[in-house]
Amino acid sequence: MPGHGQLTNVAGESVECRISALSRVGGRERNEDACGYLQEEGIVCCVLADGAGGHGGGDVASRVAVEAVLREFVAKPEASVAAVSALLRHANDAVLQQQGSDPALADMRSTLVVLVLDTEALCAVWGHVGDSRLYLLRHGATQFRTRDHSLVQSMVDGGLISAEEALTHSERNVLIASIGSQESFQPSVVERPFAISEGDAFLLCSDGFWGLQDEAAIEGALMDAMTPDEWLTRMEADISLQIGDGSDNYSAVGVWCGEVESTTVQRARGG
């Protein structure tokens, strides 16, 4: 599902913003992930959610959250901290409203990660709730990763377990913040718009994806790819070798800022 936007650098030249997305059921019977992206008035919004809940509530929660973000973005396309915070709140309100309409969905929850890129001001704002992640890669190396709102992340931060142990910990799916709750809706949003550079790459992904692709694998696939679609395809090929019955759904959105040639050169130099 590739897409294109336009970025304008300080010299007034146009470079491409390329986007690709995938969402797979993995080893489950139902896909409770959802993702999407839109461009309005030169501003791009990418969103990904990972739902949970009985009676099909997980896929409802993630779908409602993603649709709410994109609907609100169309109404007010803006790459600001306030706007992204509002997108997250709007998604939470939409899931809460859906819960109230059907008692069977009362326990549904979702993670959510949102990226908004201003293709003229060359800045990005992002925010998240839960353990779906955003990675920013520059010159082929990870420069930033969102911090998971999870029990095991808190344990890692406290020095109780290692990051490797967190991947297989029995409590790894316990979230301390989520969409679909008044009490645990505690989003994290960057403090100010982030200046993006030609060659930057963003990855939004669910835990079913990043749990099987560490930073080295993400960076390696980026180095070998010529398009964001190929980037995701290379990572998915590796994931497919690891999944089995019961493996989680996995989803990702990849965003490249810049011409293929320039980003490839920058990645080669960064390697």
Can you walk me through this structure?
- The structure is a single chain.
- The protein is of the alpha+beta class.
- The chain has a single domain (3-270), classed as PPM-type phosphatase domain (Phosphatase 2c, domain 1), CATH 3.60.40.10.
- It has helices at residues 57-75, 81-101, 151-157, 163-166, 207-210, 215-224, 228-240, 260-270, and strands at residues 3-8, 14-24, 33-40, 43-52, 109-110, 112-118, 123-129, 133-138, 141-145, 188-189, 194-195, 201-205, 250-257.
- The strands form 2 sheets. Strands 3, 4, 5, 6, 7, 10 and 11 form a 7-stranded antiparallel beta sheet that branches. It has a 6-stranded antiparallel beta sheet with strand order 1-2-13-12-8-9.
- Helix 1 (57-75) packs across helix 2 and helix 6 packs across helix 7.
- The longest helix has 21 residues, at 81-101.
- The protein is globular and about 50 Å long.
Comma- or semicolon-separated keywords:
single chain; 271 residues; alpha+beta; Phosphatase 2c, domain 1; seven-stranded antiparallel beta sheet; 8 helices
Give the gist of this structure.
The protein is an alpha+beta fold.
Topology (elements, then pairings):
Blueprint lengths: L2 E6 L5 E11 L8 E8 L2 E10 L4 H19 L5 H21 L7 E2 L1 E7 L4 E7 L3 E6 L2 E5 L5 H7 L5 H4 L21 E2 L4 E2 L5 E5 L1 H4 L4 H10 L3 H13 L9 E8 L2 H11 L1
Antiparallel strand pairs: 1-2, 2-13, 3-4, 4-5, 4-6, 6-7, 7-10, 7-11, 8-9, 8-12, 12-13
The domain tally reads 1
CATH first level: which class? Alpha Beta
Major sheet attributes: 7 strands, antiparallel
> How does the helix and strand content classify structurally?
alpha+beta
What's the overall average pLDDT, rounded?
A: 89
Helical proportion, percent range: 25-40%
Straight-line distance between termini = 28 Å
Corresponding CATH architecture:
4-Layer Sandwich
The beta-strand count equals: 13
Give me the CATH fold name.
Phosphatase 2c, domain 1
What is the N-to-C succession of helices and strands? EEEEHHEEEEEHHEEEHHHEH
Count of discrete alpha- or pi-helical segments spanning 4 or more residues: 8
Dominant shape: globular
What is the radius of gyration?
A: 18 Å
% residues in beta strands: 25-35%
Within CATH, the superfamily carries the name: PPM-type phosphatase domain
Low-confidence segments? 1-15, 262-271
